[in-house]
Structures are given as C-alpha cells and as structure tokens.
Amino acid sequence: MRMILHTLQKDIRRLWPVTAITWVMLGVLSGFDRWRADWTASPTEGWLTMLLTMAFALVAALAVLEEPLVGDSNFWTTRPHRWPELFAAKLAFVALAIHLPSLIADAYVVAARGFFPFAYLGPLLWKQFLFFAAVVLPAMAVASLIRSFTHFVILMFAIAGGITILNGGFQIQSLYLLPGIAVRQGMIRILVALAALAVVWLQYSRRRVIPSRVIAAGAMLAAASIYLWLPARAEYELVSRPTLETLRVAFRNSPSADYPGVAFGRAAQQVALLPIEIAPAAPGQILRDAFADVEVVGPGGAHLQSGRPSPNRPFEKIDLMAYPLAWTPGSPESDYYAQCNWLVLSFSSPAWERVKNARVRVRGAVAFDIVRRGQAVGLSLQEPTDASGVGRCSAAQVEDPYSRNMFKIFCESPREIPAAYVTLRHAASGREWVQHLNSSRTYRQGPDATWLSPLNRAQTFFHMTDSSESDPGSRWLVPASFLPSAQLEITPEYITGRALATFDFGEVSLVLLR
Q: Residue 468's pLDDT is what?
C-alpha cells in the first residue's frame, strides 16, 4: 500500500497540469450538454467530445509511461516495485484523474436537466465502466507497448485515422446505414477490452513485448474485419435462433408461371413491388422490418445481390436495393406502421436491362424486430411530462432554419429511450398525425458525437400550416389552429426478440408497366 500511495502521489505531482486541461475541457463540454435540448449536438460539442476522449487517452498513457515497460534500462526497474502495486497505482490515478471528474460532471448534467442523480447511479456507473473498457484500458495497453509518449501520439493518430476511414468521415448518419442491434458493436468492444486486458497483464507481470504486440495487432485487425465484413444477416442469425422456424415470408398469392412482378419506371431506375405476407410466430405479434437481403438470378447466369450505399464508399454503384414496405394504398395514417406487405426491389437501369421481361428467381432473407407495444402516455402541451418507460418529454412550437413553423416533441432520460411513436390527435376534425421518435433531426455540419453525455435524447417534429384544409396533398401538415384543442400521446415499443426468415419465391416475371 505504501508503494501504491508513493507512486500515485508522484504521478499526480508530475501530471497535474495535463490533467487540469482535461478538466477544463470537461467543464466546457458539460456546460454545452447541460443546455442542449435537441437530439443532435452542435459541432462544438461534437468536436469537444472527440478531443476530450483523445485527451483522456493521452492522460492514461502518460501515467503508464511514467514507468515505461519496454526496454530493460529504465530506472524504475531498480526500485522494489512489485507489478500488482505498480498497476494498482496506475488504476488509482486514472480513477482520480478521469473517471471521478467525469462522474461528477455527469451528475451535474443530469441534475441540471431535472433528474435526481442518485436515482440513476447504476446507468452513470455503467457509462464509466464502458468508457474504461473501450478507451482508458486500451490506451494503457498501447502505452505499455511503446517506449515514449511521441510514439503513442503517432500511433493514436494512426488509429483515429483508421476509425475515420472505416466510418466514412464524421457525417455517418445515413438513411441507408444497416440497422444496429448491438451485436457488431458488442463483439468489437469485448474483443478490444479482452485484448487490452491480456496485453496489460503480460506487460506488467511478464514484460513480454513481442507476444503483447502480436495480440494487440491481431485484435485491431479482427475488430476492423468484424466492423467491415460481418453481415447484418449474421448478426440476426446469432440472436434469432428460437424463431427461425416459426416466422415465414411468402407471396401473398401463390405465383404461377406467368406471375408478374409489378414494376414501374422512376427516373433512372426501375422499382418492382412483390406482394408478400408475413406469418408471425404468434397471433397478433407485432413485427418491425429491419432489412432485406435479396438475391435475383436472371437468365444467362445474370446474378444480382442487393446492397446499400456505404458511408465510406459513397461512389460505389448499387445495382439492386431491397427493402420491405409497410404500406397499403388508401390506409389511414395511423396504420402506416402496420405489418409490411410489399417487398420492394429497386434496380439501376443497367441491372434492369439484364432482367426485364424475363423469368428470374428471387430468394433471400428478411430480418424483423419483434416488439411489444407499451402503454400510451398522454403528454402535456404546456409543461414537461414524465412518460413512464420513455423519459421526460416536452412539446414546443419552434421554427426550422427557413422560419417554417414546426411542433417539436423532445424526450430525454439517463436510461436508454426505447423506440416510440407520437400521435397528435384532433377529436373535433377526426384527424390524427403519427411520427416516430428520431424520424427527423436537425442537420448540422461537422461531427455530432455525444458518447460522453450521460443523457439519451430523442425527438420528432410535426410540420405546421396556417390553413385548416385537408386536401390529400396537405394531410401531413398540422393546422396551427388545431393545437390548443389537440391531444398528444406517446406509445413506447420494446424490442423483445429478433427474427430472421429465409424465403425462395421461385421464378417470377418482372415486366415493366408503362
């Protein structure tokens, strides 16, 4: 214990200027976070989040490099340092310099937004644990593999550059991103944390540099491979085994030899609509379509595999896109999110020339989220409402950058906010409008990272109009005169399982309808 306190005191004395700078950055970031009432962070807050994350990693590395582990001529090796005491001193320093200030800042933000911090101590501590496993421990592991702080900075920028390339830059919010079900992220986090733990143990207990570097390099390559090439279908296969045999996707009507796919031209592409039906695992089960992985085999060996635009490959040509569509012509707006009943195949013009007016075989898989609908909670239009299972929600009239009136619903909570849809209902006219949380966002230039924030936020908007007419082209607009007498409610949806259904529709004809 005496050696632990001695080493800790020495690290604090030598590293307090650098640590103080990170505390100033943390205070500024907390100030921005305390006042933010939007899902999207400002570019300033996004940059501060990224820079502060890097600064915390630098502080952890500096603490390790006070007693370098690479080489056999370091002065500290002549002192009576036992490796458990030395490592315990480093853990104590990062706890005092990084995690304790961060926890205090999180408690300040949570309290400033109207929440009692001690009631959410579990989520706040879990956030610190995740940050330690994903950032601080890997930084300490990397620092234990190099000789100097200069080498660490160079290596950190190389890693940051690689992450930026994999993400396609800072603007990673895309309508075409594959659905995240935490499997890919969880695998990467566990892999990185275990590799970092192995490196730290080998270096502090054995000082085996070469094996440790091999472990670190292998973990980084494996993490990049998982991020780039793990199919979304494989993620659902890992978590949907119990429902593979009970969920079925088939044609709504049995296809015959001359069954056509309803297709129509649109700009430079053609879209085919295949009518399908879903047989859920249980009667009345609610399914939300996640994605479709479709293969189309045409005449003469023509083969098309569906894909999606990638943020890090923005100019890649996509010959086929496929997605389920939950919509029935003439259905009311409240039924828009019902079970999907169409499989949409969108072909590029060159790809369509290879399959048009021909018999093609359509097969693949469709992934679904199985959800449970929670109790609807009424929201006040005048003051914030504590919506059970969602968080604290408020409603306000705002203006977009073009001064158009909008009605904004904003929810925040220290706990995770589930998917939910918001219904605005006007009883006198019999009209209602439905939006999903986070179905719209405020677009800004620059990074908008918020992983250091202790709060989860979600929002949606209703577009307002001064007219009360309800012609088909303006039914999505909410008359401003309806607001004083309208009712607002939010209905959460909790994901209770995942399902992956494979299908083979056999051969069908895709005929372009003029």
A: 72
